[in-house]
Amino acid sequence: MTIGDEAKVTMEQIRELVLGKLLDANQTLIVAESPVDTLITDHNGRRIGFANGVEINEIPNAEMRMIQDVEIFLVPSNANYEVESVGTGSGTFNLYCTIIKGEGTFEDVAFTEVSVNKGSITTVKIGEDIEEYQMEVDANGDGEFEQVIVGDTGQAVTPEDKYPTTWGDVKQTKLFQNYPNPFNPDTWIPYQLERESNVTIKIYDVSGQLVRILDLGRKRLGVYIPKSDAAYWDGKDNSGETVASGIYFYQMTTSDFQSIKKMTLSR
């Protein structure tokens, strides 16, 4: 079977077909399964893919193929890319990438069973210089990204719900985007730990005033993403008073890590 055959193939079969080419030509493989139109843009603004149903290829030494409802792209590995997928109907889609990482080595990234509607937009940055793969999801196509799906290398795992999902081993401590966002009246703050540590999350308003301290105690190495494990904020301050709508910042601190992100409370 060749890459142009009109037959239903799996991601594993596609990769087997082109793996030698990926390594020899130093290319990155990107596979998107419908219902989406995918448009890939490199750091120079050149594009390959589909825009409003029109096929585009402005990237030298890049290739694209369609096998039924599967879009297959081969792009040079010596660049970073933004992959944007626009929903052409309602359903779920999968995005797979095989990225060359040094001579003779590669890694896989998977985003699976992502819910989309017509006009939904997802974006993710990939490339040899990208260390964290995050897919932002704009479910309504209104320019507001309500969901973040976090990908990592390794065996793909199907998300259980619409919260951020990681794949593979925990390689570093990370703070993820809260969900839902915007939220009312409460929200969950996901994170992961590469080693056991005491964890504290402090919430500030836009003026820098401390609003709430979430002392999570000592946590083991692992992923704290589902609602049963993530940090929880009920939208109240340290006195138990309900806080007003607005932008807030949450800062996670461990023994050797600190990170801050923004969230929006909309009552």
Low-confidence stretches: 1-8, 154-169
> Which overall shape is indicated by the principal axes computed on the Cα atoms?
elongated
Rg, Cα atoms, Å: 20 Å
Q: What count of helical segments does DSSP give?
A: 1
Portion in strands? over 45%
Quickly count the domains: 2
Give structural notes.
This protein has 2 domains: 1-168, no CATH class; 170-267, Sandwich (Immunoglobulin-like), CATH 2.60.40. By secondary structure, it is mainly β. 6% of the residues lie in helices and 49% in strands. It has one helix spanning 11-25; strands at 27-33, 36-42, 47-51, 54-57, 63-67, 70-76, 80-87, 91-100, 106-116, 121-127, 133-138, 147-151, 174-175, 187-189, 191-193, 197-205, 210-219, 222-224, 231-233, 246-253, 258-265. It is elongated, with a radius of gyration of 20 Å. The strands form 5 sheets. A 7-stranded antiparallel sheet has the order 4-3-2-7-10-11-12, with no helix packed on it. Strand 20 and strand 21 (258-265) form a beta hairpin.
What's the helix and strand layout?
Blueprint: H1 11-25, E1 27-33, E2 36-42, E3 47-51, E4 54-57, E5 63-67, E6 70-76, E7 80-87, E8 91-100, E9 106-116, E10 121-127, E11 133-138, E12 147-151, E13 174-175, E14 187-189, E15 191-193, E16 197-205, E17 210-219, E18 222-224, E19 231-233, E20 246-253, E21 258-265
Antiparallel strand pairs: 1-6, 1-8, 2-3, 2-7, 3-4, 5-6, 7-10, 8-9, 10-11, 11-12, 13-15, 14-19, 15-18, 16-17, 16-20, 20-21
